Each structure stands twice: as C-alpha cells, then as structure tokens.
Amino acid sequence: MRCVIARFPFDLTKSGVLESMKSVKPEQVTGESVVIGRRTYPVKQVGQVITRQDRRDFSAGEVLRAMTQLGFTCRGLPQAAAPARVLDPSQQASAMLGAPAAV
Fold first, then answer.
1. Which of 2, 17, 37, 77 has the greatest number of CB atoms lying within 10 Å of its CB?
2. What is the pLDDT of residue 77?
3. How far apart are the C-alpha atoms of 83 and 61, rounded to whole Å?
C-alpha cells in the first residue's frame, strides 16, 4: 500500500511492517499506540522504524492512518477519568448514613 508520511511516499505492506518491528523492543506507551503482533508500540516509535526518519518529521496521525489501512489495531489517547466530586465532611457523613446529601 502506498502512503505518504512526512511528505514522502512509502510502499508499506503488513508483512513488511511485521518484519521491521520483529526485533524492536517496545518503548513505554504514553499516548497513541499500535498493536503489532503481540506487542504494543508507541505510534512515533513505529513511524521512526518503518520510515527511518526522525520522530519530529511526521505526526502520529499520519502513522495511525497508515497502520489502520494496513489492518493493525490502533489505540488513541487514553480517556481521562472524570474528576470525582469532593464532598465536605457533613456531605460525606450524610452519604455514609444514607441520608440525602445537602447541595
């Protein structure tokens, strides 16, 4: 499949990506990621290996699109949990007793 990453065309295949990433140890994932084989890699690490370009030269979105088109499982940014409502001591005591909390 032909795709453009960092304004350069690349002919990528699923087997070619699997072969390129086979001996690469995954870095810690803190953002978007791609599942290749049984390993989860950061998107930028995959892009660097398959394009041989500096990570600053391309966006994570470009690599995510290419990997999705090749059939790899891609994961976006983890969803942040909603902040828990902080109760004052009287509201907390009311909640523990089962009475409706004062708002």
1. 17
2. 74
3. 28
